[in-house]
Amino acid sequence: xxxxxxxxxxxxxxxxxxxxxxxxxxxxxxxxxxxxxxxxxxxxxxxxxxxxxxxxxxxxxxxxxxxxxxxxxxxxxxxxxxxxxxxxxxxxxxxxxxxxxxxxxxxxxxxxxxxxxxxxxxxxxxxxxxxxxxxxxxxxx
Length: 141
Hints:
Blueprint: E1 3-4, E2 10-12, E3 19-24, H1 38-57, E4 61-71, E5 80-90, E6 94-104, E7 113-124, E8 136-137
Parallel strand pairs: 2-8
Antiparallel strand pairs: 1-2, 3-5, 4-7, 5-6, 6-7
């Protein structure tokens, strides 16, 4: 639940929201070029970012915008994607989540390849879909 401050809002560290999602890519997700559709990767990014925002907000949060999205390297069937998401900013009701995606190539040994990065904004909502407050984000000192 975090530390309370004079603002009355709890504080949480970025690490408290950290989410790691892993997924083996399937040939069912390929496009005509034999690589994975960008939209499939974007869904994994949104899933991980939503989980991170929900952890920080202690409840549901919805995607408001994709502020930045970059595909850095193609993804192929058989690749093991790892999606890392963590809060980088918290407003009164909104949160920005940074996401990095790496791939372990199924047919190659060696280091993982960075395949995508993104930043998304979420808003915490109550049961009626109304925006609600979120904890402040602590910064490293």
